[in-house]
Amino acid sequence: MEGPGNAAPKPSSSVKLVLLGEAAVGKSSLVLRFVNNDFQENKEPTIGAAFLTQKCNLPTRTIKFEIWDTAGQERFASLAPMYYRNAQAALVVYDLTKPTSLVKAKHWVAELQRQASPGIVIALVGNKLDLTNDGGADAGADAGAAGDDEGAEGEGSGDARKIPTEEAQAYAEEEGLLFFETSAKTGHNVTDVFTAIANAIPETSLKSTRGPGGAAAAVGRGADEQRVNLSGQRDNAAKEGCAC
Amino acid sequence: MLNLSSLVQKAQQLIDPTQGLNLSNSDKNPSKASLFQSQFRLSSSQNPLYEINAELTIPPPNATQGDRDSDRGYHYAGKLHLSEAYLCFSTTPSSFVRSANTATSSVFTGQTHGAGPSGNGFTFPLCAIRKVERLNSQSFQFALAITTWNSFLSVTGKENPPTDKKNLREQRITLHLADTRHACERFCDGLKKGLRAAVGNVGRLRKVVAECYSEHLLRPEEKKDASPPDAGLGMMFRYPGDPKKLRDRAKMRLWAEYLRDNGRNITIIRQPTFHKLIRVGLPNRLRGEIWEMTSGSIHLRLENPTLYADTLAKFAGKESLAIDEIEKDLNRSLPEYPGFQDEEGIGRLRRVLTAYSWINPDVGYCQAMNIVVAALLIYMSESQAFFLLSSLCERLVPGYYSTTMYGTLLDQKVFECLVERTMPILWEHLVKSDVQLSVVSLPWFLSLYINSMPLVFAFRVLDVFFVEGPKVLFQVGLAIMRINGEELLDAADDGTFISVLKSYFSRLDESAHPKSENPKLRAVTKFQELMVVAFKEFSQITHSTITDLRLRNKDAVLRNIESFTKRTAIRNLGPDSKLLSADEVGALYDRFYTLLYERQQRDLIIQEETRRRARDSRARAQDLFRGEGEGDHIVDKGRIALGPSTSMMDYNAFREFLASMSKWAVADTQLQAQAHTGNRKSDALLNPWGSGPEPADHEFMRRLFKSWDVGGTGELTLANVVSGLARIKGRRDIMGAMNYFFELYDDDSDGKVDREGILRISEALLFLSRRGLEGALSPSTSTPTSNGANSQGQPGTSETDLGGVSANERFLGSVSAFIRRCFEYADPDRPRTQDGQAGEEGGEEEREKAQADNSEAFAIGDDDDEDEDELDLLGPDSPPGSPKPAAKPSTTPALSTDGSARRVSRAQSEAANAALDPANPLHITLPTFRMVVLADELLEQFFESSFPTSFHIMEGLGSSAPPASSSLTTFSSINFGHRAAMPAIAPAAQGATRGLRGVLDNIVTDGMRVAAEVRKRMDEAQKELEKTALPGQKDEDDEDDADIGVEIGVRGGGAGSSTDPERRRVRSEDRDLLSGADAEAGATGSGSGSGSGREGKLVDIGPGMSDAGPSKGVVEFEG
Ligand SMILES: Nc1nc2c(ncn2[C@@H]2O[C@H](COP(=O)(O)OP(=O)(O)OP(=O)(O)O)[C@@H](O)[C@H]2O)c(=O)[nH]1
Ligand SMILES: [Mg+2]
Q1: A2 is a domain residue
Q2: Ligand nearest to the CA of A21
Q3: Compositional bias of type Acidic residues: which residue ranges (chain B) (predicted)?
Q4: What is the pLDDT of residues A47-60, one digit of tens each?
Q5: Domain span at A160
Q6: Closest residue (by CA) to atom 13 of ligand 1?
Q7: For site-directed labelling of B920, which of B66, B119, B722, B887 has its Cα 20 to 30 A away?
Q8: pLDDT per residue over B817-856, tens digit each?
Q9: Residue pair B455/B372 in contact by the 8 Å Cβ criterion
C-alpha cells in the first residue's frame, strides 16, 4: 500500500469508499463500470461485499479508491458497519425507477451520518438513467417528463422514471450530499461521481492515509463500539475469554 | 433481552426437575434426542427409543443368494438404535439413553477421519424393511436377519419380484444383539411395534425412491427407462467441468458397484469405502442423490414426499416480499452456467426458492440462497433441492440466511477465533494491519464456497460438507489461510489481502508443487493440497470445537445484532416517533420485543409441558428410553437477533403489553384467578400470561388496538405501537387527547359519536379510572368549600383525599355529568339534511319529522314554559348574527335541533328513558365532546394529564401487579375483567351487559334530573361569569348541590325545573361556546394557542359546577 510518505511525483493517497443501497439498484454495476469500463446484464448479487480498487487522477494529486461494494438486501444491513468502518466516502445508490430504493437510500444516509466516520463524504446516486426519457443524454434537462410515467409504465420505450430529479436533488441539498444521476449501462456520469467525490475529500483527511494505526482508523473508533463489529473481538476477546 | 434468563430459570424450576429440561443452554447441553437426530440426520420427529449393542454382518459382495454363512462378509460392532420410524446402526460408540453421559452421546462430534459423523452403519426407515427373521445362533441369544425393500421398489406392479429375481438384488443383513435376554426382547418388541406402524408408508417410500437416479443406474440395460430420474439441470445443460478430467466414468463405475453391494439410496449401508468415495468427489449424476442421503434431507422428503408440490400449489399466485426479492436475483444466479441463461433453469430456481420462502417465512429469501440453490439444481431435482435447502437452513448452517444472519456473524466470529488459535502469527498480523478477516471469509461461508471457488472445486467441498457437517467450512477456510499464510503476512491492507486470495482461488487447478522433481508430487493440484491440509492438518477441528466456540461467542454476537437492530428500527420508525423521547422509544422497543419474545417462550413451554404431561400419562412405566425435551433447539426462537420470528403483536399480546405499563389494563379478576389455580406450581407454568398480571379485556382496549392497527391487519408492528402512543403521549396537548378519544369512538369517522358511543366513552372513562387517576390533578375543585385559597393547590395524586372525597370518587361524578351533558347537547341524527343545504333549507316537513323522532331525548326534564322560552331563543331559525350558518353543516344542525327539540310536548318528554332509546338516534360532534369535557375540570385533567400519564412506558408497572380494585371500593362490584367480548358497535345494549353498563343506564335513565342538573350548572356558571362571584352566590350553590345530592336517588323526580330567567342567557352563551368550538374544529391543527382563550373561558365555568352531588349519587346507586 502506498503511503503518503512515499515521495511520488504527484501526491497519491487512498480513499476508502463504500457503496450502499437497496438490492439490484446497480451498485456493483457502477463499480464495474468505473473500474473496468464494463457492464454485465446479469450481475450476480453481491454476497457480503466485494472489494475493488481504482485510481482517479486529479490535476494535483492521485486518489486510489479502495471500493467496498456491499450487498443490498435488507438483512445484510447488519453487516454494513463492518464495511463502512473508517470509510471516507460513501456512494448511496438508488434506482430512479424504484421509489422504495430512495427510501432505503435515505435510511442509509441517516445511518452513515450517525454511525460512520465524521466528515464522511456522501454522494447520492440515482442509477439506471438509461431507462428514463432523459436517457442519460443530458441529465436533469427534462425532468418534467416524469409527469406521465404512469402511462408509459410497462412499455419498454416509455419513461420508467419514478423519482423526479428535483425531489432527490432537494433531499441531497438538505442533507449536504453530492448528487448525481447515472447509468452504469451507458456509463453516463459514472466517472463524474467518483471524480466529484475525490475532489470533495478534504485535504486534511488525505494526509493521513488509512493504514496500521492510521489516523483514519482512529477517527471511526468512537462510533465503533455500538456496531455489529466482528472485529470487536480484538477488544473483547481477552475479557470474554475467547480462549483461542 | 431483559427478562429472558429469569423466565428461563423460572421455567426450569417449574418444569418437573427430574425431567432435566435444559432450556437455556440447549446447545451446550443438547438433549439426547437432538444428538441422536444429528447423528443419523433425522428430523425432529424421531427420538431414540431403544438402543442395544449389536454386531452387524454384511454378506460379502460376491455372496450368492441364500448364503448365510455368518463367518463370511463384513462385521461391525456398534450400537443399534430404534426410533419411532427408523432403525439405525452406527459403529461410533455413542449412546442416547437417558443414563448415558453427555460425552458418550456427543462422541460422534469427535474426529471423524473420514468416517463422517454418522460413522459406518445404516439409517433404515422402518418402512424400508421388508422382513425380519429371528435366527438361531450359538453365540448370541438373538440374531435377526433383516431384509429390505432395496431394489424391489422400482419394480412396477406387473413384474412380479420372484419371477424377476435375477435382476433383483436382495439386501439381507444380519444383526446379532449383544445384551441381556430381557433387553433384547424389549428391543425386538419395540421393533415389531414400529414395523407394524410403518407398513403403511411403503407407498411413500416408493415415491421417494423413484426420484433417485441410483434406481435407474442399477437397472439392467434392457430395463432402463427412456427417461431416467431427474439428476439436475446438468442432464440437460451438461455438468460443470470436464467429465474426463473429473474422471466421472470411473467414479460412476465405482459407485455403481458400491451401491449394488451395499444398498442404494434409502437402504444404503455406510462402509469405509463410502466415505472414501465421497472424498475423491462424487460423480455428476449421483451427486444430488448422495448429497440428499448424507445430509439427511432424503428423510425429510420421505416424511412428506409431496410437500414441495403441495406448497407450490397452495401458494400459487400469491405474492410476498420474499418473492419480489427472489425475482430480482433469478437472472443473477450462476449466470455463467447455461442452465440459468434458460427459462428452464430460471423456472426451477424460482419455484424452489419461492416454495421454501413459504414454508419458512422466518428465513424467507436471503441473497446467497439463490446461488446455493442454483448450484444444487445442477445436480438434483427441484423437490430434492427444496428439501436439501431445508436441511441447510435448519440443521447444517442454521441462522446463516435468517433475517439477521446471526448464524453467519457467529460463525465469522468462530472462524476468527480458530485462526487466532491455529495461526497466531498470522492473526497478529491481521490485527496489526487492521484487516477484518470476516470481510474476506464471510462470503465463503455464506455461499458455501460456491461463489468463491471455481464451481468444480466448490462442489468437491460440498460433497464432504454434506456428510461431515459445518466443520468442513471451517477446515477449508483454515486451510486456505494456512496455505496462503506467507503471502498474507506480506499483505498490509484489506485490498492486498483480498487479491492474494482471489488469485489463489483462480489457480486451484494448477499444480501445488510445479517445480518438484517428483512427477507424482507435481501432479498434485492446489485443490488437492487444500483438501489434504483441511482434513489432515485441521483434523482437530471437530464439530464440538465449533459448537463450543459458537456457544462462547453467541451472546456477544446476539447482543451486537440486537443493539444494531434496535438502533436501525428506531431510526426507521417514522416521524411520529419523534414525538416521544429517545428513551421512551427505546423503552418501547424493548418492551415490545421482550413481550413478544416472552410470549413465544411461554407458548413453547406450555406446549412442552402439555406434551410432557400427555406423554407421561400415556407411557410412564414402559418407556424408559424416552427422548427428553425434543424441540429444545427451537427454544431460543423469538430472540430478535435470531431473526424476528414475530414482529407482530396480536390483540392478546397487546393486552399484555398494556398491562405491563398501565394499571387500568390489568384485569380485576387476577387475584381471584390466582387463588384458584395457583396451588400447584406447575399450573402456573401453564398460565398463558406467565408471571405477569392477567390483562383486562375491555372494549376500550379493543378500540385502541383497532385504532393503532392502521393497516387493519389484526396485528400491530412496533411502528404502529409507537405512533399510537406518540399520539396519546407525544403532544401533551389536551385538544389532541380529546380528539384522539373522540376518534376512537367515531367508528365511521363521520365526526359523530352516537348514543351508544357516548355510553361507551363513559364506560371507558370509568374503566380507565377504576384504579385511580394518575398525573396532575388539581384538588381545588373537589368541593365547594375548598374553593378559596386552596384552589391553586398542588396537584394531587390518585390517592389524594380531600375532605373525604377523593379525586377518584369525584371522577365518578364527572363521568356521570359527562353523560348528562352529552345527551343534553347531543344532536339528533338527520342523515338526509346532512349534505348540501344544511338543516335550515331542507324542507320543513323533514325537519319536523326529525325533531319528532328525537324529541324525547332532549325533552328530558323540561317543562312547558321552559320549552317555550327555549324555543324563542334557540329556535331552528337562528337569530341573525348567530355565528353558525350553513357553511358548517356538520355542526349547525346540532345547534338548531338542540333548541328545537325542546319544543316537544310534555307527554313525550316524560318517556324519561328515551335518552337510551335506539329509535331516537342522536350523536355528539367533536366540538360538543370537547365542550362537555372542558366543562369539567376533572375530566379536563384526565385528558390533559391522567390519561397520557397512565402509560408508564419507561418504568412499567413493575413486577407486582397493582392491587385489584383496592383503591376504588365504589366500583368493586363491577367486573371489568370478566366481561365477555362485546360487539364493538352494538345497538344500545339490551340489558346484555350488566355491571357497569347497568349503572350507566341508571344514570342516564334518570334523565330528567340529569338534564336539569346540567342546566342548573350552566346557570351557575353563567351567573358566575356575569356577576363575577358575589359572596352570596356561593351559598346558593352549596344549597343547590346539596339538594341535588338528596334528589339524585329519586328516580324520575322532576327536580331542577327552576325557571331562573338567567338561563336563557346561559343558553345563548352556550351556543356561543359551541360555535366557538366549531370555529376551532374548523381550523384543525391551527395550534391550540389560538383557542386557548376560549378554553380558558370554558374552564372557568368548571369550578361552579361541583361534582360532589353526582358522585354521591353514584355511590347511592351502588347501594
Ligand atoms: N438498465 C440498467 N440496468 C442496470 C444499470 N445498472 C445495473 N443494472 C442492472 O440491474 C441489475 C442489478 O445490478 P447490480 O449491479 O448487481 O446491483 P447491486 O446494487 O450490486 O445489487 P446487490 O449486489 O444485490 O445489492 C443487473 O441486472 C444490472 O444489469 C443501469 O444503469 N441501467
Ligand atoms: Mg452488488
Answers
A1: no
A2: 1
A3: 861-872
A4: 888 888 999 988 88
A5: 10-239
A6: A26
A7: B887
A8: 888 888 777 777 665 444 444 434 444 444 444 444 443 3
A9: no
Take residue B1076 and report the three cell numbers written for it: 366557538
What does the alpha-carbon distance between residue B356 and residue B311 come to, in Å, rounded to a whole number?
A: 8
Measured distance CA(B762)–CA(B1001) in Å, rounded: 11
> Chain A closest CA to B873's CA: distance in Å?
57
Check B552 against A241: CB less than 8 A apart.
yes
Distance (Å, whole) CA B539 – CA B468: 12
Ligand 1 site-directed mutation target among B332, B367, B446, most atoms within 8 Å of CB: B332
Give the DSSP H or E segment for B119.
Answer: none
Distance A45 CA to ligand 2 centre (A): 5
What is the A25 CA–ligand 1 centroid distance (Å)? 5
The end-to-end CA distance of chain B, in Å, is 49
Q: What is the CATH number of the domain that holds A163?
A: 3.40.50.300
Interface of B with A in 360-389 (CB under 8 A): 366-368, 370-371
Position B786, amino acid: S
Residue A29: its chain B contacts at CB < 8 A?
none
Nearest CA to B899 among B827, B846, B993? B827
Question: ipTM greater than 0.85, yes or no?
Answer: no
pLDDT in tens, B211-247: 889 888 888 777 776 788 899 999 999 999 998 888 9
A161 assigned to some structural domain: yes
DSSP states of B172-225: EEEEEE-S-HHHHHHHHHHHHHHHHHHGGGHHHHHHHHHT-HHHHHTS-GGG--
Pairing of strands B172-177, B50-58: antiparallel
Q: Is B998 exposed, middle or buried (0-12, 13-18, 19+ CB in 10 A)?
A: middle
Mutate to test the interface with B, among A109, A224, A230, A234 (most CBs of B within 10 A): A230
Give B759's DSSP letter: H
Q: Which pTM does this prediction carry? A: 0.69
Tell me the domain boundaries of chain B: 26-156+166-211, 397-564
B706-748 pLDDT, tens digit per residue, is: 888 888 888 888 888 888 888 888 767 778 788 888 888 887 7
Q: Is B548 on the interface with A (CB under 8 A)?
A: no
pLDDT > 90: what percent of chain B?
22
Q: Is residue A244 part of a domain?
A: no
Q: Does domain B26-156+166-211 have CATH number 2.30.29.30?
A: yes
Q: For residue B328, list chain A residues with Cβ-Cβ distance below 8 A.
A: 23-24, 45
Cell representation of residue B52 = 442395544
B357 touches chain A (CB under 8 A): no
Asked if the structure places residue A233 within a domain, the reply is yes
Specify the pLDDT at position B751.
Answer: 80
User: Which whole number is the average pLDDT over B933-937?
Assistant: 83
- Write out residues 45-104 of A within 8 Å (CB-CB) of B: 45-49, 51, 53, 66, 71-79, 81-83, 85
Q: Among B16-25, B886-895, B1053-1062, name the one with the lowest average pLDDT.
A: B16-25
**CATH number of the domain located at residue range(s) B397-564 in this protein:** 1.10.472.80
Q: Nearest 10 degrees: CA dihedral of B419, B421, B422, B428?
A: 60
Pocket (CB within 6 angstroms of ligand 1): A 21, 23-29, 41-43, 45-46, 71-72, 127-128, 130-131, 183-185; B 367
Ligand 2 center from residue B399 Cα (angstroms): 22
pLDDT tens, position by position, B427-477 = 999 999 888 898 889 999 999 999 899 999 999 999 999 988 899 999 999
The tally of domains found in chain A comes to: 1
Q: Does B837 touch chain A (CB under 8 A)?
A: no
